[in-house]
Amino acid sequence: MNPFSFLWPQALLSLLLLPLLVGAYLWLLHRHRKAVLRWSSLGLVKQAAAVQGRWRRHIPPLLLGLALLLLMLALGRPVTRLTLPLQDQTLLLAMDVSGSMRATDVEPSRIVASQNAAKAFVQELPRHVRVGIVSFAGTAAVVQAPTHSRDDLLAAIDRFQLQRGTAIGSGLVLSLATLFPEAGIDLSQITGERRMPRPLGARAGASQPTPFEPVPPGSYSAAAIVLLTDGQRTTGPDPLEAAKMAADRGVKVYTVGFGTTQGEVIGFDGWSMRVRLDEASLQQIAAITQAEYFYAGSAQDLKKVYDTLGSRLVFEHKETEVTAVLAGLAGLLVMAAAGLALAWFGRIA
Questions:
Q1: Model confidence pLDDT, tens digit, residues 127-185
Q2: Where are the domains of the chain?
Q3: In CATH terms, is domain 87-194+212-313 a member of 1.10.1740.10?
Q4: DSSP state at residue 10
Q5: Contact, 224 vs 254, CB < 8 A?
Q6: Which end of the chain has fewer surrounding CB within 10 Å, N or C?
Q7: In this structure, how many other beta carbons lie within 10 angstroms of the beta carbon of residue 231?
Q8: How far apart, in whole angstroms, are the C-alpha atoms of residue 306 and residue 120?
């Protein structure tokens, strides 16, 4: 793949001047050599070569030639794909706290393994990244609003309380409402009869939110959702409908499946339940929102997933114009050429 593309490719025709400049330089060298042989003795020529060194006289022109090459490339306004850190990034962790997470097929238990992996993930994120946490079982709840405080996040993860049911869609909708508190998302269907509080400073009777206009899926780079579950939906809104809501807002939902995909009977506290991970739905959620699905069958797998997500979520691959970079390098080469010419020969030309 070509590392550069050019906004003004027609300007690259200036590169045709380089062979002419090289030819002119070689012609001047030949002319100078003939003049030296005509007016100076061979001894003087050898003495000059010994003092100055033949190779030195070619370095400043070579640096100038490279500077001209970079400037001619800069005329074409080059664009390349760079990996850059995202600014003002917010991540929402939507984590399953249904009863099946008490199972001990993952040591010491699924819930403890997911808590440990989440805490390690939060601590390793860059400090400029805000993180919020939503837990979901039969209903969903914000256990920590987006914050920069890692201590608050760790304490919130430790406060998880297991409940019955698995409302994956509720976790997604509440995560979106947390990211967009002024969007007027109705939460009465997923959190009992509670609704999202009005934004701070809003007055009763204030105007309704402006009509929502969908944006391309995956286009909102300022926030993302990481959803982890070990089961399948048993209650709450359809997760695929919730994924469509996220896609319409450009938010990517990275899904993590944790546990068994075949379906197993898991026993704890004297009773048992059948648990099966719904990979198909998680894959669809990720696809709808232009994100990715990850599977973790063990605590170590889960940590690797979070490590991978950490590098994906806080950096972006962006087409960036690098004209200024090439022009700056050309300027440095010109200064280096002038400095060497003055140091070695006492003159620039």
A1: 888 999 999 999 999 999 999 999 999 999 999 999 988 999 999 999 999 999 887 78
A2: 5-82+320-345, 87-194+212-313
A3: no
A4: G
A5: yes
A6: N
A7: 24
A8: 8
